[in-house]
Structure formats: C-alpha cells, structure tokens
C-alpha cells in the first residue's frame, strides 16, 4: 500500500483503512473478530460524522473460511479477503472507492486461490527493522490432520523457488538482519525449484543460506515429524548457523489418538526422531504443540501424552484444548470430550510443561552463551535478546564494573550492541526468561 501513499498510523481512529488479520485455527481466535469489528464500527461512525471515511477489512483465514458469514453478520465490514490475495489489495481499494463514489454500499470480497503467485506480485520487504526476520518459504498443507483447518484455509502445499528466497534473505542481511526464521505451515515439506535445476529440500536451502555472509543464525518452523528427512538430521549436526532448537509438534502421545488425528506417525516414531536429533546435536532444545481432549481421548490416552512429555523433556511448548472446527472430520465425531475434562487435562499438561521449561532455563545458569541483542529492555541499561535455544535473555549492562568496560570506549552507550551477537553469562533463570551480564573482553567483537 506504500505505492498508494498509505502510511502506518499508531491508532485506528486516524486510519483510512483498518485491516484485521485473522486466525481460524481455534474457535476463540475466530470469535474475537466480531467483537473487534463492533469496536471499530463505532470509530467508523464517528469518523463519518466528521465527513471522513474508514474502510474496515477482514483478512486472513477467518475471512477465507467465513467470508460470506462475515458479510452477513457484520455489515460494517467493507472488504473481506483471504491469505492468497493480499497482493490485490490496491485493486480492492479502487473497487471500494468506485462503489463509494457511486453511492453504493461498499462490499469487496476476494477469497480466491489465484493461479498467480502472490509473492511475485508483492513488493519485497523494504525498510525491515531489527536483527531478526521471518521469511516465508512454503505455504499450505497436504497433511489433512482431522482436527485442522489449515489445508482448507491455506490450500495445498506450495514452495517458493530457492532463488527468490536467497535473494530476499540477502536483502534482509544487507539491511542488518542476523537471524532468519524460515516459515511455512509445513516447512520441512519444502520442495522448491532449485537454483541449479531440479528440486531443493529444506536442508539444501539451509546449506545455501548459510553461505550468505553476515547471516549468523537460521531457524525454521513449523515442522511435521513425517517430513524429518535424512538430510535435515545431517544439517542439524553439520551447520553451525542452524540453531540448536526445533519446534516439532506431536499433538498426542497415544497411538490410538494419533491415528484418529491422521498424524501418520506413532509415539515410537517420534521418540526415534528425538533420539536421532540428539545424536546429531546433543544439546538441541525441543518445543512442541499438544492438543488435549481430542474426541474419544480417554484418561489412559492422556496419560500416554504425559509419558511422552516426560521422555522428551521440552524446553518450551504450546498446548491447547481441542476446538471443533467447521468442515473438519474430527468435528463430527460423536464422542466429544467434556469441557471440564479438557480443562483438567490442559492444567495437568501445562503444569508438567512449565516445570520442564523452568528446569531447562535453570540448566543454563552459569553458562556463557551467544545472545543476539534484539531490542531495549524495560529496565535501564538493559537489552533483550535470544539465546541459541530461543530463550529470552535480559542483559544488564548497568552491572558492569569499571574494569570490565575499560577496553570499551566509555563514551559509547550500551545500545551500540543492538543487532549484534554478544557473549553473555547467564546469572539467573525464571520460568519464561533468563538474566545475564555481558562478557566483554574488548577483543571479542
Ligand atoms: N503445521 C503445524 C501446526 C499447525 S497449527 C503442525 O503440523 O503441527 C498450530 C497448532 O494449533 C497445531 O500444532 C495444533 O496443536 C493446534 N491446533 C490446530 N487445530 C486445532 C484444533 N482444532 N483445536 C485445538 N488445537 C488445534
Ligand atoms: Fe494442520 Fe499441521 Fe496437520 Fe497440516 S500438518 S493439517 S497444518 S496440524
């Protein structure tokens, strides 16, 4: 929209266009849209009294899945468009302007899966700020887990060509980015056109990106256990730039439930993957996603999930109550689990996961780690960064004694470290973050 002279504003009451970008993965996320539209409608009305207009747009997966329903339930919404048509936004504005000029009710709906690739039509990211960035390499999913809307809202798996990704990564690094997270709904199924001809794998792409000078860290998310290929295991052992952290959702520890979920792997398969990863990279930190209360889940099934968690020892995790999604096979299974049981299981699972996360954080106290400084912290003379294991680290520069700062030019503020990797000694750990102090040798950077 920059090409149309649109600029970001800080608050919606001065906006000509407000876009709600939405998530359809669980019901709670989808419901938020309608309450938010209600609030925006008041702003829109009060702007109208001053003779100003405001378009309200709903974008993303709720728009994709429930476009017609949104138009019916929320007349204040002017535009509805899905994740695959963002590049058409300028045209949609033109259409809305034309409707408004004719005195018609503004109504623009675009939930196509167009043949053209949106990435070819979106301008490359410019003016990216900060040392870390996400880079989409793959979209969509062909797995059809029975609880999940992604294959319907995002469509089938599509991978971007390697050349485009390398070019975008280079541009980000030129702008100061030091860490890139490759993104995809099913990222390790990546199979894009290789620069050298043929098909490139995710591992191949990681090797290629590691050649970019100044790109110090790579991560990727989210992966499916079925797509952990041999070359990806190798990459975790071989690539220093690939951070020792992997988000690998398992959903359940019960084979019966995994089968009903159509995950196409067993708990044992998952164990083997974790063992293999740890053989290649013994310090790898693991993260996962879990669903409790999938239809038909018994206490015994749930106990197997807890058992799997005890085996893996997660550094971090996300866990959810099963949420029936319209149009998915699991939503019509009769034996739905009681809400109270879901609540109880979620609490038990989260207590265990939190305990593990805290223990993992505690285990790094006293160690010195490379931390990428991302932004200013809340306290004075503090920067906030991430450890190789994706832990948030608050780094206190105020605690430095005079001797330690001698080699550094005392006239330069601590903020000069922003966007850099710094050796940090971890002094304490909480459940969600670490505290550390910089180890400044004067020659280390
Ligand atoms: N592609 C990833 C993640 C997709 S969605 C994967 O294969 O795992 C992110 C997470 O949301 C999922 O891992 C799952 O744990 C959760 N999720 C998806 N659908 C859900 C539903 N209907 N109810 C509750 N949680 C759900
Ligand atoms: Fe959804 Fe992930 Fe399963 Fe694909 S693999 S259907 S995105 S949970």
UniProtKB/TrEMBL annotation:
Residues 362-440 form the TRAM domain. Keywords: 4Fe-4S, Cytoplasm, Iron, Iron-sulfur, Metal-binding, S-adenosyl-L-methionine, Transferase, tRNA processing. Coiled coil: none annotated. One of its GO terms (molecular function) is metal ion binding. Its cofactor is [4Fe-4S] cluster. Residues 1-98 form the MTTase N-terminal domain. Residues 127-359 form the Radical SAM core domain. InterPro entries: Elp3/MiaA/NifB-like_rSAM, Methylthiotransferase, Methylthiotransferase_CS, Methylthiotransferase_N, Methylthiotransferase_N_sf, MiaB_methiolase, rSAM, rSAM_horseshoe. Its EC number is 2.8.4.3. [4Fe-4S] cluster binds at residues 141, 145, 148. It is found in: Cytoplasm. GO terms for cellular component: cytosol. It catalyses: N(6)-dimethylallyladenosine(37) in tRNA + (sulfur carrier)-SH + AH2 + 2 S-adenosyl-L-methionine = 2-methylsulfanyl-N(6)-dimethylallyladenosine(37) in tRNA + (sulfur carrier)-H + 5'-deoxyadenosine + L-methionine + A + S-adenosyl-L-homocysteine + 2 H(+). It comes from the Bacteria. Binds 2 [4Fe-4S] clusters. One cluster is coordinated with 3 cysteines and an exchangeable S-adenosyl-L-methionine. Monomer. Catalyzes the methylthiolation of N6-(dimethylallyl)adenosine (i(6)A), leading to the formation of 2-methylthio-N6-(dimethylallyl)adenosine (ms(2)i(6)A) at position 37 in tRNAs that read codons beginning with uridine. Belongs to the methylthiotransferase family. MiaB subfamily. This is tRNA-2-methylthio-N(6)-dimethylallyladenosine synthase. It comes from Iodidimonas gelatinilytica. The gene is miaB.
């Amino acid at each position: 929209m920059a090409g149309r002279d649109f600029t970001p504003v800080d608050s919606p009451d001065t906006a000509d266009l407000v876009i709600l970008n939405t998530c359809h993965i669980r019901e709670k996320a989808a419901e938020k849209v309608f309450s938010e539209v209600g609030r925006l409608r008041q702003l829109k009305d009060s702007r109208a009294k001053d003779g100003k207009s405001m378009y309200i747009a709903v974008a993303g997966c709720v728009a994709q899945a429930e476009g017609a329903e949104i138009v019916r339930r929320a007349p204040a919404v002017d535009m509805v468009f899905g994740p695959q048509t963002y590049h058409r936004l300028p045209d949609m504005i033109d259409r809305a302007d034309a409707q408004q000029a004719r005195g018609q009710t503004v109504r623009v709906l675009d939930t196509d899966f167009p043949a053209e690739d949106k990435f070819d039509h979106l301008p490359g990211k410019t003016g990216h700020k900060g040392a870390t960035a996400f880079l989409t390499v793959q979209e969509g999913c062909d797995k059809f887990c029975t609880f999940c809307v992604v294959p319907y809202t995002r469509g089938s798996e599509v991978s971007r060509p390697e050349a485009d990704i390398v070019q975008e990564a280079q541009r980000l690094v030129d702008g100061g980015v030091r860490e890139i997270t490759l993104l995809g709904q099913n990222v390790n199924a990546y199979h894009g056109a290789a620069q050298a001809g043929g098909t490139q794998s995710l591992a191949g792409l990681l090797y290629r990106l590691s050649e970019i000078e100044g790109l110090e860290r790579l991560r990727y998310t989210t992966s499916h256990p079925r797509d952990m290929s041999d070359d990806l295991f190798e990459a975790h052992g071989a690539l220093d730039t690939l951070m020792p952290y992997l988000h690998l959702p398992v959903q359940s520890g019960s084979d019966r439930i995994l089968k009903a979920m159509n995950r196409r792997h067993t708990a044992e398969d998952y164990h083997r993957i974790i063992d293999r990863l740890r053989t290649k990279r013994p310090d790898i930190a693991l993260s996962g996603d879990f669903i409790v209360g999938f239809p038909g889940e018994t206490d015994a099934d749930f106990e197997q999930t807890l058992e799997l968690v005890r085996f893996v020892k997660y550094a971090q995790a996300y866990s959810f109550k099963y949420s029936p999604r319209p149009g998915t096979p699991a939503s019509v299974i009769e034996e739905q689990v009681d809400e109270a049981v879901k609540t109880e299981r979620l609490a038990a699972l989260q207590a265990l996961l939190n305990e593990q996360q805290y223990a993992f954080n505690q285990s790094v106290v006293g160690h010195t780690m490379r931390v990428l400084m991302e932004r200013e912290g809340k306290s004075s003379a503090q920067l906030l960064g991430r450890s190789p294991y994706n832990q948030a680290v608050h780094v206190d520069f105020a605690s430095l004694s005079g001797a330690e700062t001698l080699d550094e030019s005392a006239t330069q503020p601590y903020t000069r470290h922003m966007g850099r990797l710094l050796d940090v000694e971890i002094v304490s750990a909480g459940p969600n973050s670490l505290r550390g102090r910089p180890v400044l040798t004067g020659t280390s950077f």
